[in-house]
């Protein structure tokens, strides 16, 4: 019985350190099962980290980071009616997006991540052919 308990604890240990995030889809993190370094994602919406900005609805929001603006910034994000998300940066700027545009990933404490959920299906995409899109995925027949 003790061995069974030990095996269960060891098997569940990696997931105990995992954190669920939404990230912008990118060349190496678009499809379910792809592994990537979450520390280089342009946008990360943390599911489990509370919002730290001094804003009215902070208690209903979560932490957000982005390198997609001129200076890397922290902010907060929350879900809206109709399947959207709103992101509020530390400078007060707000941005809206569709939640389905992001992929859901599990990230471990080292930043290694695996895409767990995505609306993008690899069978509908092919590597882009244009030089400026190298390393990216394009819809089949649209490049």
Q: How many distinct folded domains? A: 1
Radius of gyration: 18 Å
List low-confidence stretches: 1-15
The string of secondary-structure elements, in order, is: HEEEEEEEEEEE
Distance between the termini: 58 Å
Arrangement of strands in the largest sheet: 2-9-8-1-3-4-5-6-7
The share of residues in extended strands comes to 35-45%
Number of helices: 1
Helix content: 10-25%
Shape designation: globular
Largest sheet geometry: 9 strands, antiparallel
Number of strands: 11
Derived structural class? mainly beta
Average pLDDT reading: 85
Keywords: Signal
Describe the structure.
The protein has 143 residues and is mainly beta. It has one domain. Helix content is 10%, strand content 40%. It has one helix and eleven strands. The chain has one helix spanning 2-16, and strands at residues 19-23, 35-37, 43-50, 62-66, 73-80, 84-89, 94-98, 103-107, 112-117, 125-127, 137-139. The strands form two sheets. Strands 2-9-8-1-3-4-5-6-7 form a nine-stranded antiparallel beta sheet, with no helix packed on it. Strands 10-11 form a two-stranded antiparallel sheet. Strand 4 and strand 5 form a beta hairpin. It is globular. It starts with a helix and ends with a strand. The model is unreliable at 1-15 (pLDDT under 50).
Short structural description:
The chain has 143 residues and is mostly beta strands. The chain has one helix and eleven strands; from the N terminus they run αβββββββββββ. The protein has one domain.
